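Much of our argument rests on the idea that a fold can be written as discrete symbols. The record that follows shows the chain in one-letter code together with its fold in token form.
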Amino acid sequence: MKILNLKLVAIIFLSINLLLISSCKKEELVPNKANLISKNNIEITSKNGILIFKNKKVLNKEIIKLSKLSAKERENWENTYSFLSQERIFEQINKAEIELENKLFNGIDENISLNKIKQLGLYDKHSSIYDKYIKKDIIEQIYEKDGSYSYKLTVINPALSYVLNIDGIVIVNDTVYQYTSNSIKILTKNNTSIDEFKNTNTTNKKLGIFVFPQNLKSNHGWSQGGNWHYKTSKKRYSLYVHGYSSHSSSLLNSSFYIEAKGQQKKWWSWKYRNSYRPIYRIVGNWKYRYVITYNNGPFVTKYSVSDNDYHSPFAYTLGGSNHCKFYLAPNGSWGISSPWYYYDGINVYYYRFTCDFYSNYIHLNRG
């Protein structure tokens, strides 16, 4: 593939200039990228409902912090930046669903049969906020074989849901990212509008837009797990490692996270409930590599992208949670200077992850 010029590639590296805050100028209705970036030396700011991080290190530090806060603490943090995350949207949905459930099923045995619940007209009833975000494709509903159901965020990298707005957008350095249900999109040119970026679903170098579809069945993936383990017929837990890399000659992209869940079933609906919080501790370590070369040159294997990320190994003690997700390295996008080009994508060729669900263990291994 044709190598991007050095000036364009340099834009891709993940360091941040921050948001221009001007109380004198009227805010544009359709801002472009340049209007969202500033030169202020502030680690985190926001504009038009989009978070802007100074660099990748700040982003990852904040995600780790947010993943350990309570829902109320995260809400207070978001309000500081006049921001609404996909994670908070999901928490609002879950809260509304449980409140509706308690109202509809008041006095009804939670072990009621499926046929009976259908006869009462109470099967698959949802709150208005649930219906709203189903239509917006923020969440999707999943039906189980026994007729029960659950729901989840659709975004391809839910570990980022703490910092993604409703459109799946976040800015790191001077690069705009959008995470959808099936791809990662990158905007590198200042004169392209955010609306144009959101509405473009294929790579357009003229606009500075690059789209990386995520095909998890390809040989560039290292995902594993996600199956439910049942403590009882009403309680279940799971551990999932998500990994995928894609590349062009001048761009390298990787998505990597781990997610643990614990759900409880009542009235045929699986939800994250405070009455079941089985996640105690997660530990892991891993290794990765990728290959670069140039025309008629050697193939050079690299073992780090120098992305200031949180690297292997890690150990996090939750002490009783029902849902957690952690953003792992390598995660993001990187450019390379001519004459070098990327020969292959990132490969996490070895890992060992273990989650302790209060003495019920799940191990995920590769290599």
